[in-house]
Amino acid sequence: MQLHAHRIDSTRIYPEERDFTADKPLRLEVLMVCWINKFPERLTMHHETLLETHNLIKEFKGFVAVNDVSLKVQKGHIHALIGPNGAGKTTCFNLLTKFLTPNSGRIVFKGLDITKDSAAQIALKGVIRSFQISAIFPNLSVLENVRIALQRSAGMSYHFWKPESSLHHLHAKAFDLLEQVDLLEFAHKLGAELPYGRKRALEIATTLAMDPELMLLDEPTQGMGLEDVARVTALIKKVSENRTILMVEHNMKVVSSIADCISVLQRGQIIAEGSYEVVSKNPQVLDAYMGRSDASLEGAHHA
Predict the structure, then answer these.
(1) Is 302 contained in some domain?
(2) Most buried of 85, 167, 211, 215, CB within 10 angstroms?
(3) Where are the alpha helices (H) located in the chain, listed in sequence order?
């Protein structure tokens, strides 16, 4: 069976004119064509690697914090990087986001070597990072925070000398982003007035304003109460549609509920990788987290 690159209009196929029980190959082809027409993005996203590392090593005065780390982040996935305290997660994350330079190894994004690129250069390529602590402008309104991010993506960062009215055309997009993260009702409040969980939602909105192809979230639920954790977890899942997310996260309930793939670090090395069902039963992972291989990882939460 041959599928052509152009899209076929399935509405022009009339089932009543054919005996599909007698023509199983044609029936299968028609069903596949209909599926392709409805979900074309799944063909391009399936098993496509967006970000990968090759044998990354980072040393600090003889201490090896990241040791020969190779990982692949698939396009369209939520990929979680987990591990106990001191495992090398933050160092690895800083290497990926170019806040640190590896001693050796390569980082590849969309087939291009970005190992020597700066943080600003990879941001222009669509790799956008949020931080472990909330990073917003507390004395600006929620709307203004998002609008500043939109100014950057629109090439208007240095238009500070123009009147504010020249920025009003960005409001429609800003309100749309605030609606995506459930902050529309807070649009005119100051950033400092938001509860902590809402501040993280605002940070995600400003990240989305940069139109990222790959979002890197550094412990997005750290320091939150249960209600905020649930809200931000649902938000990450919501904004992940048609995007790729790599996140460092300690909360295993969060990871188990939204991650498509998990890489587990211990002492700077990846000791396990796969779905939550796979890694949660791995003896090395259980030993790293719980101190013994016959323990259960479910619900583990290491701050």
Answers:
(1) no
(2) 215
(3) 24-38, 41-45, 89-96, 119-124, 142-153, 171-180, 196-209, 226-239, 252-258, 276-279, 283-290
**What is the model's pLDDT at position 43?**
47
Residue among 235, 196, 230, 193 at smallest CA distance from 217 = 235
Which helix (H) or strand (E) segment holds residue 109: the answer is: strand 104-109
Domain shared by 155 and 252, yes or no: yes
The structural domain count of the chain equals 2
Of the CA atoms within 13 Å of residue 213, those in its CB half-sphere come to: 15
**For residue 15, what pLDDT is reported?**
43
| Alpha-carbon 214 to chain mean position | 6
- The residue among 15, 48, 42 whose CA lies nearest residue 29 is 15
Domain check: are 25 and 172 in the same one? Answer: no
Confidence of residue 293 (pLDDT cuts 50, 70, 90): low
Residue 296 included in any domain = no
Query: What is the rounded CA–CA span in Å between residue 136 and residue 202?
Result: 8
Same domain, 16 and 140: no
Q: How far apart are CA 199 and CA 182, in angstroms?
A: 11
- Are residue 16 and residue 103 in the same domain, yes or no? no
* pLDDT tens digits, one per residue of 138-158: 999 999 999 888 886 655 555
164 found inside a domain: yes
| Residue at 281 is within a domain | yes
Which residues span the domain enclosing 123? 47-290
E strand or H helix at 293, and its extent?
Answer: none
Mention every residue, 6+ apart, whose C-beta is less than 8 A from residue 206: 136, 145, 146, 148, 149
